[in-house]
Amino acid sequence: MVELNNDELKCLTTFEETTGAYATDCLLSENGIIFVIKSGDLGKAIGKKGANINRARTAFGRPVFIVEEAADIEQFIRNLFGTIPIRNINIHEKNDSKTAFVTVDDSDRGVAIGKNGDRVKLNRAILLRKFGCDLKLYSK
Questions:
Q1: End-of-domain residue from the set 25, 49, 68
Q2: Would you put residue 85 in left (φ > 0), alpha (ψ -120 to 50) or beta?
Q3: CA–CA separation, 85 and 58 (whole Å)
Q4: CATH of residue 35
Q5: Is residue 26 part of a domain?
Q6: First-residue to last-residue Cα distance in the chain
Q7: Distance between CA atoms of 108 and 111, rounded to whole angstroms?
């Protein structure tokens, strides 16, 4: 179980009030916020024509990313990348460390990385927090 600090708890409350979706975790960074939401709440979090997610972005004044909860690490990784097609996921365990090697098409690489690498940095941080797993992104 992840312990949340006061800022994260405030963000969870604001997100839930703004979108109506139940968030189980969030990670703050200067480049954005990523919320882990209850499975099945993605539509509610986005809202009709993106109204809810846009209200959340306005409320926080920075990029907001949402990912649906998943008990399985591979499904969680797929959820992290949303509509970006993933070609392959290989999870390697060595000693006490775990690394997920994710491959996407060259044409999707820029979207997977995000502006200034923001998306991949947040994805890496939330994956490490939830599953103790590092993330390496490759393209073919």
A1: 68
A2: beta
A3: 28
A4: 3.30.300.20
A5: yes
A6: 36
A7: 6
Alpha-carbon torsion (42, 44, 47, 48), positive or negative:
positive
Judge if 62 and 94 occupy the same domain. Answer: no
Pick the last residue of a domain from 68, 92, 112. Answer: 68
Q: What is the pTM of this model?
A: 0.90
Q: What is the pLDDT along the chain (140 residues), one digit of tens a residue?
A: 677 888 899 999 999 999 999 999 999 988 789 999 999 999 999 999 999 999 999 999 989 999 999 989 999 999 999 999 999 999 999 888 999 999 999 999 999 999 888 889 999 999 999 999 999 999 98
* Residue 1 in domain: no
Least Cα distance to 114 among 48, 65, 52, 61 occurs for: 65
User: What domain range includes position 115?
Assistant: 77-139
Please give the Cα distance from 88 to 103 (Å, whole number). Answer: 5
Q: How many domains does the chain have?
A: 2
